[in-house]
Amino acid sequence: MSFQDTHEKPLRTFIETRARTLQNTIETAAQNRDANNVVELEKQIDRESDRFVEDVTARVNGIRDQIKARRPTDDRSPDYAERMNQYKQYVSLSSTGINQVTTWVNRIFKKIIDVIKNIVEWINDMARTIIGILELIRNSFNEFITSFLK
User: The organism sits in which domain of life (predicted)?
Assistant: First the structure.
């Protein structure tokens, strides 16, 4: 079985699913947040992002461990040299695969960071909009009171 079938496709599926979950969780938290509690939202974004990175790192480390587990250990076996050559080829192909996966994971992380930046910008824009609306209401109320009391 190839590296792609054994490791890359399941890892891609896992990361895609996990990235969607991360995005949905952060978007839901941003939409449902208390307008006065941006700090808690930032903490939640940090927690969710860290959890995502930990999950992906654990998966990649698992792949590395699976690759290492295929290394022949009995150097007295009559077919040890042949099995070691096969292992070296497997490691070489796996290295190529891991490099491709690493490149892909880096692109995914960049996309996720972009999504998080968009959410933070949205929060910032919404906060400015809300503050602007509140200031308009306050100014209108002050004008009303001033004109009413005159």
Answer: Eukaryota
Compute how many other C-beta atoms are within 10 angstroms of the C-beta atom of residue 97. Answer: 19
Look up tokens 């992906």; give the residue.
Answer: 56
Nearest to 22 by CA among 108, 148, 128: 108
Locate 115 and state its tokens. 């999504």
pLDDT digits over 33-89, tens only?
A: 554 566 777 777 778 878 888 888 888 888 888 888 989 999 899 999 999 999 998
Task: Tell me the whole-structure pTM to 2 decimals.
Answer: 0.60
Long-range contacts at 78-81 (CB < 8 A, ≥ 24 apart)? none
Q: Are 66 and 1 in contact (CB under 8 A)?
A: no
Query: Which positions ≥6 away from 23 have C-beta within 8 Å?
Result: 112, 115
How far is the CA of 96 from the CAs of 7, 99, 103, 119, 140, in angstroms? Answer: 12, 5, 11, 35, 66
